Amino acid sequence: MWSFFARDPVKDFAYEILPDTQEKSGLWTLHRGKRKTNGEPVSVFMYEVAQGTDQQTQLAKAAFKRMKTLRHPNILAYVDGLETEKSLYLVTEQVTPLATHLKAQAEKGGSGELEVSWGLHQIVKALSFLVNDCHLLHNNLGLWAVFVDRAGEWKLGALDHVAPEQGDPSGALLPAPKTVYPDMEKYDPPEMPNSNTGEKWAGEVWRMGCLIWEVFNGPLPRASSLRSLGKIPKALVPHYCELVGANPRARPNPARFLQNCRAPGGFLSNSFVESNLFLEEIQIKEPAEKQQFFQDLSDNLDSFPEDFCKHKVLPQLLTAFEFGNAGAVVLTPLFKVGKFLSAEEYQQKIIPVIVKMFSSTDRAMRIRLLQQMEQFIQYLNEAAVNSQIFPHVVHGFTDTNPAIREQTVKSMLLLAPKLNETNLNQELMRHFARLQARDEQGPIRCNTTVCLGKIAPYLNAGTRQRVLISAFSRATKDPFPASRSAGVLGFAATHNYYSVTESAARILPTLCTLTVDPDKTVRDQAFKAIKSFLSKLETVSEDPTKLAEIEKDVASSAQPTGVSSSWTGWAVTGVSSLTSKLIRNTPGGPEAGGPAENSGPDQATSPTSATDGAPASGMEKGCFGLIILLELSTTYYSYLQVGRSSSTAVKKQSSDWSSSGWDADDSWSNEKEGQVTLPEGVRLASEYDWDSSTAKGAGQNDLFASLSQRNTASTLSKKKREERRKELEAKRAERKAAKGPLKLGARKLD
């Protein structure tokens, strides 16, 4: 009667068995399952008492007991279990039988030797643990006794026949595998009827040899097939032959076999095994060892199995950053592993860590994040970018390290589409205005101009009208030639955002002054841009009805992501890397990223987009396909430094910028407060009439003129200081002589 009211323990079981997922595994039926509370995936081994014999039930209960008591990283991990009168439920970590795993890998091209080498290492290590540490014999080792987890790691299971090497003290004897499964006899060693002729592990290592043969050659048809090596790697052959030797006393202990295979040149001596062994002991390694390991890991990841990278390397990388102070060295391998993740997994595992990394004060961390932003920007949502990432990134604009400022500017190409109205049109424009006007590095000023042109489609109409013409006009007066070219190309690339009146009254006059620029590249780009703008004006003059169509984008709102992809590659990546402190030069031409030759007054070809392959069209042709690469001689670069340092001494830009800071259109002119008088003959780089065709002196058009002027000024200054020093010394000597010598003990009375 009471049994009627008793609850079924299976219904209260904390795990759910998924339907249609069963697979035979020895005595057990293997099912995929999940924890009811959180959906964690598991494997459930189930044995039905009614369907088995008494011997099989005895073995199943023995395996159930062993799984609870045996704990080792290379033995199938017990999670939970349930024993009822009708059935046994054994819950373990999520695994797949090795035979099934190898079959799936064969369909993909086969398991690599690296993966197999680590798998065999794990099984031999588990066998060594049983034999040498627990004094147990597995008695059932084979392909069916090995399982593979999500990370591709091999686990030893099928503990049904595990027994003490000296026999069970209780006197209970488990049936041998061949009594339950007759076809298992082929895996028994030849001395099996007389098992006392060899070491205790002789039978275990013989079955290990059978397992190795089946891993490389498939199911073992008969015991005599072990003599045929088949596909067993040459590095493993000598050690395999020891395992299946006829003399049981000559067979090595599992620990000795492992040691032999780990010797230099052995099958288990490779970077994959070494990396796994290091990861197993990473918690006790020295910080310097961890740093070196993560640096080397990035090069090895390309040859490692994908599942291993996702489920073993990635957690260790995240842990190393979170708790191990690994720093920037984890970034490169972290992003490599991230390529194997789905979008959902990336959001869940990597994005929270990246957001936290941006708040780091470590410069190496910050610059690597900026350099590799392209790999993870697509997974960042706008809320996280504006509230958690951008506030930290903008500190890079004011960093004293030029490399960080340069990378911060370039990163805006990726962040701009995700920035909100305030951050993009106010905060970012304020920083760009300061960089373009006051940064001492010419390449950074150039890149700022380039970046502004590329993100123009994301700006609102009011900001574009207020900023673009002023910014590009300022760039055309920059002493750095690449910046002047960037200003010209900026006008060309954003031509559709200017009205016809602005083109005629403000842009063309600015461009015309550059037709006599000292740098030929600047002059060439200026002529192309002028022709394009004139063509636009002529079109409207011939047909005024086309005015609305030409000016349709002038008051348009910010455009969605991807609109400026045809301008990808323009100048940003070509301008010098400040970390190498070298300004390089690449010959022009369509293939090199230089300007293409015009086939007509208004026609030119340009490289296709680096992003989507779409060719540039209209005004874009021939104007912004250029990748600015300059090569300045040491003397010319020194000349720029002279102008820069002099400019810093003479003028100090006002920090009271209006809204975005672009109102100071002529910031490179010398009409500023705070000027001081310079020695005669010394002129600033900004004082040179870059945009004038009238020479004011015989040597003014010579770019190197200021060098000799500065040398002259320096010599005059030294002479004056020397004369002044001698004059002061003479006066000091006169005053001392007038006082006269004082006698010892004498006092000067009033």
From TrEMBL:
Coiled coil (UniProt feature): none
| Renumbered ranges of HEAT repeats | 389-427
Which stretches does UniProt call biased (Polar residues)?
600-611, 706-716
Annotated ranges, domain Protein kinase: 16-314
Region entry Disordered, spans: 581-616, 650-676, 697-750
Skewed-composition ranges (Low complexity): 587-597
Q: List UniProt keywords, sorted A-Z.
A: Coiled coil, Repeat
Q: Where is the composition biased (Basic and acidic residues)?
A: 724-737
| A Pfam cross-reference name | Pkinase
Q: Which InterPro entries match?
A: ARM-like, ARM-type_fold, CIK-Related_Protein, HEAT, HEAT_type_2, Kinase-like_dom_sf, Prot_kinase_dom
Q: Which GO terms describe its molecular function?
A: ATP binding; protein kinase activity
Family membership, please give it. Answer: Belongs to the protein kinase superfamily.
Role noted for this protein = Regulates COPI-mediated retrograde protein traffic at the interface between the Golgi apparatus and the endoplasmic reticulum. Involved in the maintenance of the Golgi apparatus morphology.
Q: What is this protein called?
A: N-terminal kinase-like protein
